[in-house]
């Protein structure tokens, strides 16, 4: 039942396996990698790439590396390395195999990357350009207009090499020189802008979170990425569509270095898939950072954030996110996935396994007038309706209860089967208090403002659920309740979507104008007493309301705080 759905990437892997494309001694025939830059927190878009790369490796008995693409010292920090490791693990994936830890850092390759750059210079495939940044930009030309060769393009290899070494030795300031690749003699006229003598090394006097001050030149992404893939024996290097135009350089670089003796064929191959766009969220790291910095959310792990840490705190399970990624599949064309698909995956994951609980979110007092004062009778309910092995939970029924405000109507509308009072010749309605007794509504109290503050009823002593007498009462309404004497009063955070606009940042719109003013409502709810033992990260279905989790940060022993993960039904569907 869990067989992965085929997609164009699996078709490629199947083909390569059949053709023996990547048969190498001692290595699995499928090695993928997930290559985050440690410059922010992972978000739901990254989950797609994680599930894809680790999922392919799992399904083909291969291996997936976690590699930090950490070549831009200005933006990267250890904090991000740590959270990314945590998030990928939490999603359920591992990069350890047969006792080996396949966790890599591009910065560990700085020596090799440098050595290959010297080779490219010596072999005439790279040169030091000393143009100003403005001239370089101008001479690059535009799409459709050929560029102009740099006056330094034909500088002797020995001269480029000497300057490059001095760049490394720290003799120049940022931007004074740059190392560029020379893919071909007429590359500056290439229709593909990425082939017009791309920069491969630049001077950056900046402290790196791992290599400290050892380097003041840093390799560019387009240079580092293919080489890192090749050094790690990656077979299928999967990236998002915007890198399609970078593939010719990827292929040229690895072929050139393979000819130079640095790598053996077959070298890794790059394949592109569509990035995931999810409605009602923003996934740009820059915009997520803005939400945090401007305190629109409480932090990266705010349950409203589409970050992995936020989704986790909100109550999403790793399984639901994996299921979601499996359902949306991979394609070669950009598109939008509706938020309801993610919420649906959560419901489908939790419905068969989440323990049930009674919770009254909008309380109204119910008094059973003929119930003896001070008496408490135990009621029992299954922890899960389809998992008898989970046993039963119990909670007391007493004279004073809490019910939902919406379960009483002073004047019932047509087809309303819950509580309403007697009127004229019509008796008050009869309903079953779920797992308790059948009651008949006898009246209600109002305060000075005309607001209903209590409902009155009588109970039938022989109607208790699970007893023989229960069957003789046929009622149409069935409502949940908790004992007002025994209930746990708990903080419950009713989360909704962060934005009201399905495409909050489309077309350059100001996404902050689309913030949902009702994204969070904090209430005190009354829960069945056993809920006081809920520990952080424990998830429940509050019957008739939705899925809730004990907040992993703010819950304390005996005093859980609950987050609504999602409602039982899609309330956003039109
Ligand atoms: P951002 O644009 O938010 O800064 P990024 O792509 O620059 O994201 P990286 O850390 O470089 O962030 O991403 C690591 C991997 O995750 C890359 O291979 C990237 O293609 C992939 N990825 C990022 N966002 C998405 C997305 N929305 N859908 C699918 N894959 C994604
Ligand atoms: Mg990136
Ligand atoms: Mg980016």
UniProtKB/TrEMBL annotation:
Its main location: cytoplasm. GO terms for biological process: glutaminyl-tRNA aminoacylation; glutamyl-tRNA aminoacylation. Its EC number is 6.1.1.18. L-glutamine binds at residues 69, 221. GO terms for molecular function: ATP binding; glutamine-tRNA ligase activity. Keywords: Aminoacyl-tRNA synthetase, ATP-binding, Cytoplasm, Ligase, Nucleotide-binding, Protein biosynthesis. It catalyses: tRNA(Gln) + L-glutamine + ATP = L-glutaminyl-tRNA(Gln) + AMP + diphosphate. Residues 354-459 form the Glutamyl/glutaminyl-tRNA synthetase class Ib anti-codon binding domain. InterPro entries: aa-tRNA-synth_I_CS, Gln-tRNA-synth, Gln/Glu-tRNA_Ligase, Gln_tRNA_ligase_bac, Glu/Gln-tRNA-synth, Glu/Gln-tRNA-synth_Ib_cat-dom, Glu/Gln-tRNA-synth_Ib_codon-bd, Glu_tRNA_lig_a-bdl. Residues 30-336 form the Glutamyl/glutaminyl-tRNA synthetase class Ib catalytic domain. It holds the Pfam family tRNA-synt_1c. One of its GO terms (cellular component) is cytosol. It comes from the Bacteria. A motif ('HIGH' region) lies at residues 36-46. Monomer. PANTHER family: GLUTAMATE--TRNA LIGASE, GLUTAMINE-TRNA LIGASE. This is Glutamine--tRNA ligase. It comes from Massilia polaris. The lineage of its organism: Bacteria, Pseudomonadati, Pseudomonadota, Betaproteobacteria, Burkholderiales. The gene is glnS.
